[in-house]
Amino acid sequence: MARRDLESVKTSLEARRTELVEDLERMGDEIQSIGVEQEKERGGLGNHFADDGSSVMEAERLSTMRADLSDLLSQIDAALHRMGTGEFGICQRCHQEIGAERLEAFPYVAYCINCQTILEREQALLSGG
Ligand SMILES: [Zn+2]
Questions:
Q1: Burial of residue 16 (number of CB atoms within 10 Å: 0-12, 13-18, 19+)
Q2: What digits encode the pLDDT tens for the residues 47-99?
């Protein structure tokens, strides 16, 4: 990848990273405030679990999203690290160059499309039993 392109990818990755960190912080606050609400509600007598079912679901939804975002954040961190070591755009599994189109769409990916497919299949086999 050309030096100039690399710089622009780096800039956009860093911007994305900043956004993610802010989103993660905000979600953390939201999850915490939902937790606090629940504690307050639990203080009352005759509290039915179903009553705070929606906020439990909301907290779960947020934690799932948060887990996805923090996963993305670590991929971005790893991509930025690879830029420093000159490995950016190189598949971490087969060490071939990752396609330019793929990198343009997902600059933080660590694997080429072939390896990604193989890894996803392995993952599916492992988790599918
Ligand atoms: Zn590969």
A1: middle
A2: 444 556 788 888 899 999 999 999 999 999 999 999 999 999 999 999 999 99
Residue 100 CA to ligand 1 centre (angstroms): 13
As a whole number of Å, the end-to-end CA separation of the chain is 40
Question: How many domains does the structure of the chain reveal?
Answer: 2
Single pTM value for the model: 0.79
Q: Which domain holds residue 98?
A: 90-129
Q: What is the dihedral of CA 66, 67, 71, 74, to 10 degrees?
A: 70
> 97 C-alpha vs ligand 1 centroid, how far in Å?
8
DSSP per residue over 74-104, as a string? HHHHHHHHHHHHT-TTB-TTT-PBPPHHHHH
Question: Same domain, yes or no, for 17 and 59?
Answer: yes
Structure tokens at 51: 């009553």
> 108: CA distance to ligand 1 center in Å?
14
Ligand 1 centre distance from Cα of residue 110 (Å): 9
